[in-house]
Amino acid sequence: MTSPPEPPARTTQPYLGTSRATIDLAAIRDNVAELDRRAGDAGVIAVVKADAYGHGLVPSARAALSGGARYLAVAQLAEALTLRAAGVTAPLLTWLFAPGDDLTEAARAEITLSAGAPWAIEAIGAAARETGTTVRTHIKVDTGLGRGGSWGDDLDAVLRRAGELEAEGAVEVEGIWSHFAWADAPDHPTVRQQQETFMEVCSRAERMGLRIPLRHLANSAATLTNPSAALDLVRPGLAIYGLSPVPDLGRPEDFGLREAMRLTARLVNVKDAPAGQGVSYGHAYTTSEPTRLGLVPLGYSDGIPRHAGNAGPMRVGSSTLHVAGRVCMDQLTLDLGPASDAVAGDEVVILGRGVDGDPTAQDWAEAAGTINYEIVTRLGARVPRVYVGPDDGVSA
Ligand SMILES: *Cc1c(COP(=O)(O)O)cnc(C)c1O
Fold first, then answer.
1. For the domain that residue 350 is a member of, what is the CATH number?
2. pLDDT at 91 (0 to 100)
3. Does the C-beta of 235 come closer than 6 Å to ligand 1?
4. Tens digit of each residue's pLDDT (9 = 90 or more) over 48-103
5. Which of 210, 243, 276 is the last residue of a domain?
6. What is the pTM of this model?
7. How confident is the model at residue 395 (pLDDT cuts 50, 70, 90)?
8. Domain holding 204: CATH number?
């Protein structure tokens, strides 16, 4: 299904600084609605960890809820507490905490805690007792990723203990979940193996007397390529921001998604340079003719990958250019070309929706030898986020 890409959302606000990321909340809302549609009877857990993949935690979470997300998920307790402090009351799952961490605040804030190890289910039970609450938990199963969650005897111990704590009223075993190793290669044999292992574990839990209503397994790639993994909830992150988790299989618009982030900056200096001029640290670029150089006030501290020296694409006016020489901490240089009429103050598009010659996060990933996930997630705190699109004030 290919629809023509929609033009990028613009803002009429003046720049607050020299750069900004314009975040289209309507795109996030619509992407969640599209993923919800693709997931059939399953609902959507919108993954808003890592500051919503660089898009801004609270506004992105609200936009996802307005698109129909039933649940939110973040990696860390602090992120979950930030959402609660902002007044977001939707169901909210988190999974990274360590032995000794204080879980009582999470228990009082009705945050769903993942039990990924025997110590974790004990800690969850202890927090429930201490606060006199019933803590919702999702049991994390390692079906073969080799990362979080339990397998083998540890998993049996977690299931048994969860059953005991549920009988006691300390926990509610609401969910069971796992994560794929190769979801971005849908035909990889591990995909089917992990899915089968997961279904076996769900049956085992049932035989142990646990009635677990929410089974979830599918990240963005699985949600888009493997409908059989949808189960009760899908758990996409990247796709809700309109990026393709499987760039070899399809662009965002091929999946009915659109990029939510547009990163722009203003040229802060434009000057003539002679032929043979070395540019930026180490002179890794040399002008080949008399030309004009433009200075972009973004660097690796803002998340522009240093690996993208002499490679990262940018658009100035109708020209697609590439970083000239090294990316510095706060700035980088463009060779605007001898005929450029660009002046200081003109806008540079670093990444956007791929229309009108705007580069995409995927273009940057290829230029820097990484994945689009990293390009948006690493965007620095120093770059102001500006929100456009209907924030219809859903107070979740
Ligand atoms: C980050 C993450 C997701 C979301 O993955 P995407 O590929 O961004 O959709 C889902 N589940 C877990 C456990 C994760 O860590």
1. 2.40.37.10
2. 98
3. yes
4. 999 999 999 999 999 999 999 999 999 999 999 999 999 999 999 999 999 999 99
5. 243
6. 0.96
7. very low
8. 3.20.20.10
DSSP 7: P
DSSP 252-286: GGGGT----EEEEEE--EEEEE-TT-EESGGG-EE
- Confirm whether 281 is a catalytic residue: yes
Per-residue pLDDT of 306-341, as tens digits, reads 999 999 999 999 999 999 999 999 999 999 999 999
Q: Is the pLDDT of residue 10 over 80?
A: no
* CA–centroid distance, residue 65 to ligand 1 (Å): 17
Strand runs (DSSP E) across the chain, as ranges?
19-24, 43-47, 71-76, 92-96, 112-115, 135-140, 171-177, 214-218, 233-234, 261-266, 269-273, 278-279, 285-286, 291-296, 313-316, 319-324, 332-335, 347-351, 385-388
Whether residues 39 and 180 fall in one domain: yes
CB burial of residue 282 (10 Å; 0-12, 13-18, 19+): exposed
Q: Which mutation among 235, 371, 372, 373 tests ligand 1's pocket best, with the greatest number of atoms within 8 A of CB?
A: 235
Any atom of ligand 1 within 6 Å of the Cβ of 54: no
User: Does 275 share its domain with 346?
Assistant: yes
Domain carrying residue 86: 25-243
Do 237 and 281 belong together in one domain? no
Which of 15, 49, 285, 387 is catalytic? The answer is 49
